[in-house]
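Provenance

Sequences were taken from public entries as deposited. Structures were produced by running a predictor on each sequence independently, with no templates supplied. The record for Trimeric intracellular cation channel family protein from Kocuria soli is shown for reference.
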Amino acid sequence: MDRLDPQLVFDTVDLLGVLANAILGGAIARQLKMDLIGFMFLAVMSGLGGGMLRDVLLQVGFPVALTNPAYLGTALVGAVVAFLLHFRGKWALRVLVVADSLSLGCWAATGTAKALSVGLSWLPALMIGVITAVGGGMIRDMSVGRVPQIFGGNTLYATGALVASIEMVILYRMTHPTWGMAVAIVSAALLTVVARRRGWRLPGVGSLEVRLPKAPAFPKSRRRKGPTEGA
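Predicted structure for Trimeric intracellular cation channel family protein:
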């Protein structure tokens, strides 16, 4: 498997992630009863937003989404698919969840690998990987006036991206980037799908809160009345 060109594998999986997330963005546009322009806007933001943030932060030239027409074309295809097909029912929802989970791992892995390839250390590479994976969905949610789901109240999602990024760092350092891509995709997908099914969430406000004891109340001192003050 390591004999394959890692760059070719990264580009292929990256485009699959663009398509899946573009369809998810279009599905939200359908929920909000938007027109075709709304479908295209949310699809592009959802499918390309994280990658564009990644490339801007890495400062390696123009974002790939602007220089490679395959990316924008794939996002627009996803918008059209979401516009023409109404994903309803249990199985359609499951397909969207699995597609989102797979793209989460692949985007975290590609973002981490790109950060490492330009010389960043492991910690900022992890940050870039997570931003690549969740940035598009965050921009999409903010565009429609929603609090991004990664900020809490949802099952494990950014955590799956972080796990995938950590695995990619380890295997990239071991000169196995292709295996890193595969492991990251599978592990992130399994974690997010199982977390969604079982309702796993990170602790929220109050879950781990330490309550300090209240200070004892001291009695108010009584001031002696002067001779001119009444009783």
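The radius of gyration is 24 Å.
Helices lie at 6-31, 36-58, 64-67, 69-84, 89-117, 122-143, 158-173, 177-198.
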